[in-house]
Amino acid sequence: MKIKWAMLAAVFTIVTVLTGCEPLAVLNPKGPQAETQADVIWLSIGIMAIIVIAVFAILVYMLVKFRASKQDKDYEPPHIEGNVIVESICVGIPVLIVIFLSIVSVQSNYKVESTPDGYKEKEPLVVYASSSNWKWHFSYPEQDIETVNYLYVPTNRALEFKLYSYGPITSFWIPQLGGQKYAMSDMVTTLHLAADSPGEFMGRNANFSGKGFAENTFNVKAMPQDEFEEWVDEVKETADPLTEKEFDQLLEPGHLGQLTFTGTHLKFLPPPSAENGGHNHGSGSSNEHTEMMEHGDKD
Predict the structure, then answer these.
(1) Are 217 and 256 spatial neighbours (Cβ–Cβ below 8 Å)?
(2) How far is CA 259 from CA 126, 218, 241, in A?
(3) pLDDT digit string (tens) for 65-86?
(4) Closest CA to 125 of 78, 186, 191, 50
(5) Residues near 82 by Cβ (< 8 Å), separated by ≥ 6?
(6) Which of 204, 268, 216, 258 is nearest to 235 (CA)?
(7) Separation between Cα atoms, residue 242 and residue 293, nearest integer Å
(8) N or C: which end of the chain has fewer CB within 10 A?
């Protein structure tokens, strides 16, 4: 009786605690890329749940059917040959599951690596997202503004992030908008995202990069296009210009709050010229960098 009440109390406690928990960010998507990934996660969870339930059901059946019995101590069970059908099922089903999940994973990877569906005909907002110990710098070449540790984006518009690092390898991740992608010091990687609805989201560096890694986060706010344009106009009227000397100070290791500037560091400290797989350690011509900033470096 005590064991029964203890189990009921434990179940009640777990249910009470879980009821007050917020949903996992990756399972609460606010953009098409994150929704694709959430669907794959739920599909994988469903398949694994079926497998676990089936295995435990077979385990209980085997324990009950072949439990110890009052046989003579000299009893020897009859020799039984392997069953081809059973063995085919045991081998075939896992193979089919792996093939199915592989196809789903490849298709979803191609989908999240490209411009989101429904946004391919629209001009994307290009943002250069660079990291340093331990902060994020967001450069808007089209708007000619730059922010530190916070990101404002318009809803219902494709977002094209150009990622690189001024320090160790980091990983740019906004769980509710899409998956993570590495930012490196000698090349630029491209991440396509979009926000379907207004809201505030958490972003962070998902790759360990030293003692300040835990606070290497940034805030993301998605808003309608007209509000985004109003914010840009306000920044241009109120923010101080970003100078090369000040940017050098920002690159020093440490934590900062949220900062806003007019102008971007792309003009005096361009990003690496290598793109998605080519490593040339930033050895590109200035003309290439200028063309990248003028045309948004579209893929």
Answers:
(1) no
(2) 19, 11, 11
(3) 888 777 787 888 788 888 889 8
(4) 191
(5) none
(6) 258
(7) 17
(8) N
